[in-house]
Amino acid sequence: MSLDQETFQILRDSVQRFVRERLVPAEDAVEEHDAVPADIVADMKELGLFGISIPEEYGGIGLSMAQECEVAYELGQTALAFRSVVGTNIGIGSQGILMDGTDEQKAEYLPRIASGDLIVSFALTEPDAGSDAASLKTRAVADGSDYLISGSKRFITNAPRAGAFTLMARTGGPGAGGISAFIVPAGLAGLSLGKADKKMGQRGTKTCDVNLDHVRVPAANLIGGEPGKGFKTAMKVLDRGRLHVSALSCGMARRILQESVAYAQQRKQFGQRIGDFQLVQAMLADCQAELLAGWSMVQAIARRYDAKPPGVSDPEVSMQASCAKLFTTEMVGRVADRGVQIHGGAGYINEYKVERFYRDVRLLRLYEGTTQIQQLVIGKQLMREA
Ligand code: COS
């Protein structure tokens, strides 16, 4: 699946323009009000951003992973809350349905996800199951032609906006093999949301708990129609998501570098621009080199991801996606840290973009698998290959 290069170029240019002309000027409002304005969400729909990863037959744009990464790179160059609005529809919320759903499930849900009329969240994490996802406790018990689902999900991105959840619950015994994935509509009786999480950064991004008390879900909503496959679905979705987050990290690194160069150009100390000092140039140079390394890595691995059959897991590619996430999310952390350093005291003041970005990027090393989980995935695969 991919869009022809010429049409893709047009799309990428529009996204670039949209980021520059619509999103960057709205960054302060998002920071102040902790919300992405509704007219911007409407424009995102118009641009087709909710459906970039969904095939054209379901109303999406049908980008390849490499193309999706290019778009994520552009969206990474502004406050990360904007990307978060479309992020779950593009990635972790929709992809389980696309990869492993039945034809009926795809036909019912994907067109509305692609248009942005339905926001879909990914509900894997629980109060006691974060990195150890296979230990999740939410239970789905068969009851006639339904399942009754009970449990609690934590830090669920876009839950307050969601019309449906791709939700992992235990239908069988302990461990990964006992987990199934369901499409759970948000309005069902017994489903309730916790209070909004107050986060360190990424203001405007909405997360909260999702609580389920005997929520009756038709068996037809079991993704793929077969129980016990949900953990693998979640892992495949995360492989993709990790590449997307890597591209996003590179985009944000680029923005922070631009902010830092601009500041170094105008700020004067000791009678000259601080950008003329070699110690400042060294920090800028390290940012540039690491950004180039990260972005080259993401593009190469995204092409390898595209070369394998869609929806099928390849342990080597999964390992490489983890390498990308490990490197790029740590890299943008270092870039943000240097960005603050270059700005000096101003970098600690909220009016300057680097102060916010410094807080925003901290999450990149945590969600869709911490750095340590990426290390485990990489290490395990290396040992397996040996
Ligand atoms: N694609 C497809 N299948 C995968 C897979 C992948 N990327 N990774 C693992 N699997 C399969 C394994 O092959 C195994 O299948 P079999 O039982 O048939 O052999 C099964 O899933 C269990 O795998 P494993 O034994 O490796 O599972 P672990 O419990 O050791 O967990 C980690 C593996 C730690 C990597 C996993 O739990 C993980 O990614 N945790 C982080 C979760 C996360 O990212 N959370 C973020 C929240 S979402 S924003």
What would your notes on this structure say?
This protein is of the alpha+beta class. The chain folds into three domains: 5-115, Butyryl-Coa Dehydrogenase, subunit A, domain 1, CATH 1.10.540; 120-228, Beta Barrel (Butyryl-CoA Dehydrogenase, subunit A, domain 2), CATH 2.40.110.10; 231-385, Butyryl-CoA Dehydrogenase, subunit A, domain 3. The chain is 52% helix and 14% strand. It contains eleven helices and nine strands. The strands form three sheets. Strands 2-3-7-6 form a four-stranded antiparallel beta sheet, with no helix packed on it. α7 packs antiparallel against α8 (278-307). The longest helix has 37 residues, at 230-266. Bound molecules: coenzyme a persulfide (COS). The site of coenzyme a persulfide has 21 residues, from α7 and α11.
